[in-house]
Design goal:
213 residues, alpha/beta, 6-stranded mixed sheet, globular, Orotate phosphoribosyltransferase, PRTase_dom, glycosyltransferase, glycosyltransferase activity, PRTase-like
């Protein structure tokens, strides 16, 4: 993991930038050859706003949204997105509406839950699922199952980086795709070429960051 990170700018909003760090990374679902660092997009308020503008372009004139579910620390983007979608304009489907911005809770078993006082913002609502990154799709699928359990209707998925165009027939709108990192690969632990060649693991990674080993 001593190689220099590759900086990648969005072709649509050049002020939205991620980094691809080469190495042998392990997530809870897979082994990957790049860690996609989206920290600045989530925490730099200017970049988060530009990311929200990108997502708003997809939904503002075509999609009614009641609730934005923010996964992986994407609350800043979600707040900006709600603001953009509710701006007063005859072109805006959500003009002057109320959009809830909700972060799920996870219990001791790692299950995604919503407390009683939050459930009214989920049940019967048109939901936009905002995820930092989608690689294997497992986190997105678990989120969809949970939201379905609570009676939510997911009408779209947005991700900063995604290798998938849809999850369970729901379209994924992303700022960066696999084509932006042509040699990006994800492997099961059984098929990981790094492990087969006895290359050490560089770091454990999730959507919040990585920890070197």
């Amino acid at each position: 993991m001593n190689k220099q990170a590759i900086e990648i700018k969005s072709s649509i909003h050049g002020d939205v930038i991620i980094s691809a760090i080469p190495g042998h990374f392990v997530t809870s679902h897979s082994h990957i050859n790049y860690y996609i660092d989206i920290t600045r997009v989530k925490h730099d308020h200017n970049m988060a706003r530009n990311a929200a503008l990108n997502f708003a372009d997809y939904y503002s004139s075509t999609t009614l949204v009641d609730t934005i579910i923010c996964m992986d620390g994407s609350e800043v983007i979600g707040s900006f997105l709600a603001r953009e979608l509710t701006k007063t304009s005859y072109m805006q489907m959500n003009s002057s509406s109320t959009i809830y911005v909700v972060t799920p809770e996870f219990n001791t078993n790692g299950q995604m839950i919503f407390r009683d006082n939050i459930q009214d913002m989920i049940a019967g609502k048109r939901i936009l699922l905002l995820i930092a990154s989608i690689t294997t799709g497992k986190t997105a699928k678990r989120s969809l199952e949970c939201l379905d359990y609570y009676g939510g209707n997911v009408i779209g998925i947005s991700a900063i980086f995604s290798t998938m165009d849809e999850v369970q027939d729901i379209p994924v709108k992303s700022i960066f795709q696999k084509e932006d990192i042509p040699d990006y690969q994800t492997y099961s632990f059984r098929d990981c070429p790094f492990c087969k060649e006895n290359h050490k693991i560089d770091a454990l990674a999730n959507s919040y960051g990585y920890s070197k080993i």
